[in-house]
């Protein structure tokens, strides 16, 4: 049996979703794509031989797919996902789930009311290196976990204009750490800076304390000229070093062997033991993510990364930004901000400007309102007439 799937958004990430879905031809029938950028839409239709729409509402009303992939800018996630859920369609939303905690809670409640699946694309959960480390942690290879340190750094991606590094990049690490530690985050502290992004922070240093007393360090920025995606997990019996990009995992074992060297006899602790490169069966995480979502729909079970998982990450993001403000890690306007390209290639409204509201902070610092708590949240309603463009939130 094939699952009918449609994609909203044919930018760079949307293209990856379309490609993987077509490769899953045994279990998936890719039926349509919605994209308001005419050239991107034409390219997708010609490449994948599917129906194309300039308006996602019309596509969903006419096609009624069994799964909708929402691959649009973050500030539009709630609008698109809510429309699909309200039709009774299962939804996979690219991470982060939404821009705010309130939007995420509304989507989760709507999915519950309509009795459909809501999955969130925290793709590192499906990275073979991560799943291998998780398997070994469950087997007790590391013993008690003491400390996790994530480095997710690299150059600024011009296509990201509506969010900062905390929501866009650190959310990967927050979800991965929760998954590996199997505990919730009870306390956070953070510092942020803004250097080249127009409206949001582009550097985050964060500290997380988990309910089991493990500590997590977030070193995240869009300022580094080389791309690094690494995570270390230190525990009683040694340390795992995980490379997200190469999907390599190394285990550095603690050595408690006695020594005859007098200078070391008085010292207690660990010494360097054997380093092992673990065998990892490499695979594309996005494909594994779709296989998981499809399995959850077919078996009427919860996906591995649920709406509640996405909500938990958003709450931590909100706490990190609040901590940064309390610690005077405030956003400041760059004196001469770089001019960013106007085209956001992952957006179905590519070519249009993104409008973010701001509030004034201490010392006249400009702070984003994206994570602020609105007094009420109104989900988008279905339209009888289908506009040709996707309106921003």
TrEMBL record:
Ranges of residues in domain Gfo/Idh/MocA-like oxidoreductase N-terminal: 3-122
Record field: compositional bias (Polar residues): 349-363
Ranges for domain GFO/IDH/MocA-like oxidoreductase: 131-240
Compositional bias of kind Basic and acidic residues: 381-393
Domain of life from the UniProt record: Bacteria
Entry's Gene Ontology molecular function annotations: nucleotide binding
Positions of the UniProt region annotated as Disordered: 336-393
Name of the molecule in the record: Oxidoreductase
Native source organism of the sequence: Thermogemmatispora aurantia
């Amino acid at each position: 049996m094939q699952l009918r799937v449609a994609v909203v958004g044919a930018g760079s990430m949307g293209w990856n979703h379309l490609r993987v879905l077509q490769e899953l031809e045994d279990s998936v029938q890719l039926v349509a794509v919605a994209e308001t950028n005419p050239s991107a839409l034409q390219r997708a239709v010609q490449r994948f031989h599917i129906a194309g729409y300039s308006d996602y509402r019309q596509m969903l009303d006419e096609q009624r797919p069994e799964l909708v992939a929402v691959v649009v800018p973050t500030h539009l996630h709630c609008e698109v996902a809510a429309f699909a859920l309200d039709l009774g369609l299962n939804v996979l939303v690219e991470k982060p789930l939404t821009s705010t905690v309130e939007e995420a809670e509304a989507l989760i409640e709507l999915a519950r009311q309509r009795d459909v699946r809501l999955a969130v694309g925290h793709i590192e959960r499906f990275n073979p290196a991560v799943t291998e480390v998780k398997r070994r942690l469950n087997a007790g290879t590391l013993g008690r976990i003491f400390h996790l340190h994530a480095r997710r750094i690299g150059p600024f991606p011009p296509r990201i204009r509506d969010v900062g590094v905390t929501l866009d990049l650190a959310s990967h690490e927050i979800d991965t750490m929760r998954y590996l530690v199997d505990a919730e985050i009870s306390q956070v502290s953070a510092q942020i800076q803004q250097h080249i992004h127009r409206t949001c922070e582009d550097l985050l240093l964060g500290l997380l304390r988990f309910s089991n007393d493990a500590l997590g360090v977030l070193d995240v920025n869009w300022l580094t000229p080389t791309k690094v995606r690494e995570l270390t997990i230190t525990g009683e019996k040694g340390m795992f070093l995980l490379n997200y990009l190469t999907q390599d995992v190394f285990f550095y074992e603690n050595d408690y062997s006695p020594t005859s060297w007098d200078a070391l006899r008085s010292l207690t602790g660990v010494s360097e033991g054997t380093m092992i490169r673990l065998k990892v069966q490499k695979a594309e995480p996005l494909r594994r993510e779709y296989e998981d979502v499809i399995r959850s729909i077919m078996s009427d079970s919860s996906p591995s990364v649920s709406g509640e998982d996405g909500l938990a990450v958003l709450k931590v993001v909100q706490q990190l930004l609040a901590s940064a403000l309390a610690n005077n890690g405030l956003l400041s306007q760059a004196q001469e901000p770089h001019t960013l390209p106007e085209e956001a290639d992952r957006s179905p409204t590519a070519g249009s400007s993104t409008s973010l509201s701001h509030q004034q902070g201490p010392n006249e610092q400009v702070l984003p309102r994206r994570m602020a708590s609105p007094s009420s949240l109104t989900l988008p309603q279905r339209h009888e007439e289908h506009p040709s463009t996707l309106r921003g939130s």
